[in-house]
Structures are given as structure tokens and as C-alpha cells.
Amino acid sequence: MPNQTAPGALAGLRILDLTSVVFGPYATQMLGDMGADVIKIESPEGDVMRAAAPARHPGMGAVYLNANRNKRSIVLDLKQPAARDVLMRLAATADVFVHSMRPQAMTKLGLDYETLKRANPEIIHCSAWGYGSDGPYADKPAYDDIIQAMSGAADLSRRQGLTAEPAYVPSILADKTAGLHVAIALLTAIVHKVRTGRGQSVEVPMFESLASFMLVEHLAGAVFEPAEGPMGYQRMLAPHRKPYRTADGHITVLPYTTKQWRSFFTLAGKPEMLDDPRVTDAALRSRMIGELYEMVAEIMPSRSSADWLAALEAADIPAMPVNSLEDVLADRHLAETGFFREYDHPSEGRIRTPASPLRFSDSPATIRKGAPSLGEDSRAVLDEAGYSNDEIAALIDSGAVRQAE
User: How far apart are CA 149 and CA 151, in angstroms?
Assistant: First the structure.
């Protein structure tokens, strides 16, 4: 069992987080779960996801709550020189500075790597933005839908024949995938700093991150020069690769190995398929997978979901129910593994959230603090930075800093 009293592996690490929406916040929350002190630096308007419904109170929307636990919030109006001075003072004692502003905006604010490095030579400066800074799209705006379209993700359902036109994956796919890249990049830079004592500039562009993610399999024939066939991994794009209709519902089933395919056709009463080269020859099976999936789709309505699941499990063929979102919430495996955690939030009451899925025997991820209200920790962060009570009061009175009621 994890040691629930041990500090997280990143305890003592301080991260200044100027990101918003989901891309950056998802990444920094993961590091916060591992013990890092994440200081969320917000404009007076706050992170736009605060307004995303549903919410019990203004500024505390559900998506915001799910991407910003284990953080503290300070509000700085960076249009004011005094607020920028505060940020530079905080940067002098931080390990990581991560932002999601476009290059021109960062240069205009004087928050680029070279400037922050003068305040803190060892700082890790991470730019989590839409496109690589050395390309023609560098200063274009980027949001999840835009990157799904640009990366080819939105075209996959059309290629598969499921939709007549391109369609977005109904999840914040680009933000969350790129957020994972940010977390990996920051941990890599932190290890480098531990080994060498040197900080560095890190860039994580959302477009390149999702394009890389998509093309692992879908580069396909274009891996070779000259190309050895079309782009697109055919198993993923087979029209009948989808949950299969049974006599009374749908289930997912995936015969994968030769043994599993032969077992499936035995269950289906198709002995003529047991020695068919499309089943026994893995290379041919890969090329003809669409035909095999079509056979599965024709066979599955012959039995009920419960009958199929029992028979497939007995034959050791991968198969499971097709869960709705509500089914996921009630899933017995997730319940027994403690996947969902509940806690009392100081302003939002009882909150349910997915816990970190990562397991560490000695430094477990923890939920120490719910997502902060806008400017909740401004005064405390300034106090830690060495500002006197009078200086803090002056900053708040001027509007350079805002403290929540």
C-alpha cells in the first residue's frame, strides 16, 4: 500500500503557473498532485475556465475545479509595472515558470526566458503554446478544436466512414494530450537541473504535440520514403472497428492474437475460419482486418450481451461492456481502487474528483487542497516573498494585486 503520510516526490518544488484553460493547468495539477507548490498567477478576470458550467458559485466551474486542485491563486494585473515587479520577485525564488501566452505577448510583457533568467539563472522557463516559435503559425491563436482540426484528428471519423464530414473528438483531446507533454517536459528539465544545476528554456507546442501523438500509427505508409502505401493505420480506420451490436445492446470485443481469433470463430460456430490464412497469418490478418471486423459485426447480434461476455471471458478473448459516462462513475473496479475521491471544498461544499491514476509506493499523489478561488492566496504568497503588511496593502489598494474576500 502507498505510504499516505510521505511527502510527494516534488515537495519543495515551486512552480509559477501563468497558464489557463486546460492545456497548462492539467499539466501543473499533475505536478501539484506529486507535491509541488503550484502558484496559479491569474489576471483580474481569472482563468476563463472558471466560467465554464456547471457551477455552484460564480468563478468555480466544474472543469476549473477538476484541473486546478493543489494550487494557490494570486491575482496580478500585469499591465501595471508594480505587478510585473511582483512576478519577477516571485520568479527569483521559483524552480519553474510556465505560461501559455503567445510569443509576441510574452516579449511585450518582458517575461521571455532571457529576461527571467536574469532574475533567476537556474529557472526552468516553459512556453506551452499553440505552435512552435520558429514556424509560420507561431503567433496564431490555438484552442482544442483548432488543433484537432490541424493535426488530422478531426478527419479520422470521415476516413473511417463513421461520419460524412470531419468531426471533433468530443473530449478536450488536444489540451489534455499536450498537457501530458508539458508535464513530461517539465519533469525532464527538473531532472536535468538536479544533475547539472542549470535551468533552461522549454517549449511545448500544442500542434506539434498532437500531430506527433496522432502520427505514431497514422503516418503508416508515409513512414517509408518512397511511401509504402497510404497514410492511416488501417486497423483503426476499419469501418466495423466500433462497439458491436448484440441481440440486446452493445459490447466491445477485440480478438487480437491468432489464438484469440481462432477461439472467437470457434464460439461463433465458424470452423471453416480456424485455418483461414486471414486468421492464422498475422501479416495477412493486418491487411485484411476490415473483413474480419465485418464478420464480427455480422456474428455478434446472434446472442445477448451477457451471453457473449460470459463466453468471451471463458475463452480469454478481450471483451467488456460499453459504458456510458454514468456507468464509469458507478464502475466497481474504479470504486474498489479508490479512483474517485471526495472532499469538502471551503466554498463549493462536497466535491468529487478523479484521483491521480499514478501509483507510487513511497511518494503517493495526494489531494491536499481544492482549487482556489480567484486571488485566494495573494496575500499569503506576497508574505512568503518578503513583502511587508504595508507593501501588500499598497499593492492591493493600487489594483496591481487582488486578494479574494
Answer: 6
Cell 515587479 identifies what position?
Answer: 85
Residues with Cβ within 8 Å of residue 10, at least 6 apart in sequence: 31, 34, 35, 36, 190
Looking only at the bridges linking them, the beta strands covering 37-42 and 71-76 are parallel
311 near 268, Cβ under 8 Å? no
The secondary structure element, H or E, covering residue 343 is: strand 340-345
Q: What is the pLDDT of residues 91-136, one digit of tens each?
A: 999 999 999 999 988 989 999 999 999 999 999 999 999 999 999 9
Of 44, 82, 96, which Cα lies nearest the Cα of 375?
44
In the sheet where 14-18 sits, what is the strand order?
200-205, 124-129, 96-99, 14-18, 37-42, 71-76, 401-402
Q: What are the residue ranges of helices labelled H in 271-360?
A: 277-280, 282-287, 289-299, 305-314, 325-329, 332-336
Q: What is the pLDDT of residues 287-303, one digit of tens each?
A: 999 999 999 999 999 99
